[in-house]
Every structure is written in C-alpha cells, then in structure tokens.
C-alpha cells in the first residue's frame, strides 16, 4: 500500500514537470548491458556478408520471346552427306532475358506452306540457363543430311526445298520468322538441334 502511494506521488510530480503525455502512453525500452544509454537498442552484428550491389548488373526481366528476339540461320562447313548450321538469336529488347532449352523449328516453302520437318533434340550441348543482355546472342547447332533416306525419292530433290522457316523460343508459343536458303533436308526433313548456348 505504501509503494502504491509513492508511485502515485511520483506520477503527479512528473506530469507537473512538463512530461509530454500521460504515463499510460509512455513505452519502456530495455537496454542490454554494455549498450548505449541513449535508450536506442543496438543492432546486433550480422554474420552474413552484405549482398553485392546490383546497380551495374540489371536483372533479367523474364524469358526471351519472339517479340524481342531476331533470328537467323548461319550456314556452317558442309561434310560428306551432312550439312551444318547455327540458329542464332539476338536480344533486341531493352532488358536482359533468358533462354533455357530447345527451339522449335518448322520449314516452310516460299508460299508459306509447311515442308516436312522432323526436329530431333541432341544433348551436345544440353539445356542450360542463358541470360542475354540487350544485343546479346545465343545459338543452337543444326545438322541434317542431303542423302536420300527412307521414303525419300532417289531422283530429283529428296524433299521440297524450303524458302523460309519459323522458330519458337523455349517455353514460348509465338514464332520468329527466318529465311532458309540451305537446300532440301533429306530423311523426311530430319534436323538435329542442340539446346541454346551463349554465342
């Protein structure tokens, strides 16, 4: 009872001395031993290093789409019975984007009709995440045969010759338009294609 009376007298004295608010509105901050006495709890040191600044390395905005990619087929050196090329794409967007996996590819004749195309995926190289900065490039390897096989006719062109193609970036549905002037693809249009890699 005596302690309660003393506390009441102390509260009245503090209010009279210009305390800015009622005692009920005041909060208490516990100060750990060895901390500063200004009433602000210290921030404990962190054992984790601070993350590096990313101001100079913009983050990828998402997957590369046909809207930001420009594609072309670059021929390689021919071999006996085989032809090689690269499907090269360039990021024409304003932000980095990513590719991971294989492109779709469909050959077309000059009028836009489909030409037999049998795309076969290879694992050299296999899928890996590729980040393309603006104007960055990636490539996928292509290989096909020019020797008639299977049901291909042995006289004349083995398959109708394509004049253009459409390629679809990995995990997308809208295609890019490409030119194709690399002759017919034998073996019912079989083309081996690798995953994209930095070019």
Automatic annotation (TrEMBL):
Signal sequence extent: 1-18
Biased composition range(s): Polar residues: 25-38
Pfam family, one: DUF4232
Species whose genome carries this gene: Saccharothrix xinjiangensis
Keywords: Signal
PROSITE patterns xrefs: PROKAR_LIPOPROTEIN
Key word Signal present: yes
Limits of the DUF4232 domain: 64-196
InterPro entries, per the entry: DUF4232
Keyword Signal: yes
Protein name: DUF4232 domain-containing protein
Organism superkingdom: Bacteria
Region named Disordered: 20-59
